[in-house]
What does this fold into?
Amino acid sequence: LRTDRLLLVPLADRHLELELLLDSDPEVLRYLKGRVSTEAEVIAAHTRRMGLAEPVDGLGYWIAFGAADATAPPIEDKAEFVGLMMLPLPHGPDQPDDPTMAELGYRLVRRHWRKGLASEASRALLQHAFETAGRRKVIAQTMAVNLGSRGVMEAIGMRYARTYFPVWDEPLPGAEHGEVEYEITREMWTANQIR
Ligand SMILES: CC(C)(COP(=O)(O)OP(=O)(O)OC[C@H]1O[C@@H](n2cnc3c(N)ncnc32)[C@H](O)[C@@H]1OP(=O)(O)O)[C@@H](O)C(=O)NCCC(=O)NCCS
It folds into this structure.
């Protein structure tokens, strides 16, 4: 998948070092874990992601690369690693068990925040979800206090659906405000394209 500034490559074993790099920044994991991941945790997450990419053609995980020079086409190059984009089937305990849906997620290296890149990559994944992977609805979830993540959801035309309160063994700061879920249906997405 390509956008103006990004190349999205399906996640493969050769990308493990990039997932390790991403999860070595505590700020990136502030609303996910509250600390950096261990190497064993990243390996386990990589294996889980590769498995979740299997059941439905077209769903899964992508590594986003950018171009050093905005006029140059993006290439797969460690130096231009932007982040990890996610579009698996919903699979968490607080998620709908619906084979016609997908769950959008994103995790970018900090130096690429606030450039519109998560929104740009997410728009490409929404198009892919509805036009290629035949999805009926895409949802996204985050901590209510994760304003960056909610900002992406709003920027790409998703609507707030609900707030819910999972029970955590070790709640992160802000967990008392709960988690939010946003959604976009195929009809909403199509209407946004026409506008
Ligand atoms: C969340 C994250 C992916 C946002 O990526 P990004 O590329 O900076 O987002 P964008 O530049 O596309 O911004 C989209 C919108 O959100 C807003 N936004 C982004 N970060 C924000 C922040 N920290 N606080 C408030 N608003 C923010 C932007 O201003 C923009 O709004 P606009 O369309 O009105 O201009 C990035 O901060 C990140 O990787 N965070 C760590 C991982 C994470 O928390 N992932 C989500 C877990 S569910």
